[in-house]
Every structure is written in structure tokens, then in C-alpha cells.
Amino acid sequence: MGVFSSGGVGIDLGSANVTICLENEGIVLREPSYVLTLRDDLEEVLAAGRDARQMLGRTPRDVVLHSPVMDGAVGNIDLAVTLLRTLSEKALGHRRALERSRLAVSVSQGATRVELDALERTVQAAGAKKASLLRSTVAAALGADMPMEDAKGTMIVLIGGSTTEVSVLSMSGIVASRSTRTGSLAVDEAIMRHIRRQKGLIIGQRTAEDLKIDMGTAKDLAFIDNETASLRGRDARTGKPATVEVTARDVFNAIQPTVENLLETIREAFENTPAEMAEDIMERGVWLSGGGAQLDGLGEKLSTMLDLPVHMNENPQDDVARGLCLAASDHRLAQRLIQAGSMFDL
After folding, report:
1. What are the C-alpha distances in Å from 279 to residues 237, 273, 275, 302, 311?
2. Using CA of residue 271, residue 277, residue 279, residue 285, what is the dihedral sign?
3. pLDDT in tens, 3-36
4. Spatial distance between the Cα atoms of 336 and 235, rounded to a whole number of angstroms
5. 3-class DSSP state for residue 20?
6. Does pTM top 0.85 for this prediction?
7. Strand, coil or helix: what is 173?
8. End-to-end Cα separation, the chain, in angstroms
9. Largest Cα–Cα separation, the chain
10. Residue ranges of the alpha helices (H) in 224-310?
């Protein structure tokens, strides 16, 4: 099981999903970051992860669905502990799953001291005895097998659920970084607002996400076909169930402003890259990672905008968890990351 007693465990505790990677097994779990409790008693947990997500929009009035991790930070420590403990036990197959494992958890470069403290308390309360925090973009770079150990600069763009981080990496450390509180969930919200405003239909986040996956694209309007879909929801005026026709162009119009803002953030980060690193990035290109990177045409749009090659793994949503698992499983790698200031033990 590697150099640690029960093997390395990498957990990407994201705003949209929790992804868990185990040494010698790879990605074993990816479930939504939700916890379902009674409305008047948050300690009465009814479900977590996928089980809680399936109840989204279907819950009675006496229960409430929580997202304990928002904007890349822990918002509710108690519920985040429940989420982390429940899903880790599910992934490893036994109670107190983290006690005998070497754990690495991701943390945003832009995390404040308060947010960092909340994450530390969450990880420790979940039962981890040997735990470290690793910067998210460094973890993504490791998981994407991106070159970052030499003195040359390499840029990675990590698009998560609620945050987008752009970092220039060199010698296993972060040379420059920019973080913004927007990500793939903002695209879902844009679709929900647009459908309500233009079609008079209220839809939930799950429906918006499905629409984004099936019909969403960052390609130019001229390349979009006339694909249509029937969308069920609730009439905004009457409150009754209703069905409307939605086209691919409707989805494009809904997400275009959000996508453009995202691309502009990346462009500004590139333009503010240290001059000595810019030439390296021009040579090596940019790596795109995270669940938000899967939006159709986004890589091509970014490549055209920056006039640079853009690289992306087949499953970019797993990059962070894979990188965390590598760091948790390899003592020498962990020490190198600690020396570079990218990783620190709890």
C-alpha cells in the first residue's frame, strides 16, 4: 500500500463535488457536495452526497438541502465534517476510514486565514491522523502530469464549481496566481435565470446542469446547430407544471456572458504573468483542468484567444484528486512540495 500504513488518500473537497482517489485504485468516488438535514435540527442528518442530491427539488418543507462547501471554502464545519466522514467511509468501506490513512486535501491559493482554519478543523474533526493540505492548482498539475519540477514556468487554469484559479508553476511551487469566485455553477445559474426570463419557466439546478452538458458550448454562434429539447419545469406566473421548447441557441445566449467573463479573467491573468515566465508559457502552452473545463469548445476558444496550445486530460474533473493521491502516497514528492511551499502538514 505504499509508504503509509493504509495507503494514500486524496480528497478534492469541492463546491460541486467531493472526489476521492485511493492509492493503487484511482478514483473510487465522486459525489455531489450536499447534506440533507431536518430544517429545525441540523444535527439530524438524513443523507449526504448523491443520496442527498437526488432529493434536490423534491424535499418536503421540514427538511433542507445544504451545500457546506461554497466558493471553494468550508461554510459550515459541522456539515462539512459529516460530508467528508460519510463519503470517505463509503469510499474506503469501513468506519473511521481516515484514521489509518495518509490524507491530502486540496486548498485554494486564494483561501483566507479564516477559510484555511475552517478547512483544517474540518479535516481534523473528520478523524484524519496524518493529513496535509495541498494547493489546488499544484494538485491539478500533478494529476494532469504537467511539467512543473524544472525552473521553467507553466500555466494551469483550474475551473471548479465556484472558483477559477489561474497559476504559473515552477520548481513544484506557485510563482504567480489569481483566483476568482466564479466557476461551472455560475453557468448553471445563468441558464436558470435565462430560462425563467425568456421562457417563463422555473427549473432547478439539476435540470440546468443537464442542459449545460447536453447543449452548452463555448463555440461561436455560427457553429451551433438548431438542436432542440423539451424542458419541464414550473410556470413562473401560475406555478403549475409546464413544458417549453429550448434550443441550443437559447443555451448559448444564456451562458455566453458568464463564459466571456471567465475567459477574460484567464486572459488578464496571462497578461500579468511575470515577463521571465511568459516565454516559457508561450512554448509550453496552457493546461486546462477541473470540471468546468469540460464545457464543449472551451479549450478551443481559450487557445484562439491566447494564441497558445491548450492541453487537457480526458477526465479533467479528476486531476485534483489524482494529484492529491500522488502527494499522499509518495513521501519524497510530499517533501518536495512542502519545501516549495505548496503543501503543509496539519
Report:
1. 56, 10, 7, 18, 17
2. negative
3. 344 589 999 999 899 999 999 899 999 999 999 9
4. 56
5. strand
6. yes
7. strand
8. 22
9. 62
10. 248-271, 275-284, 298-306
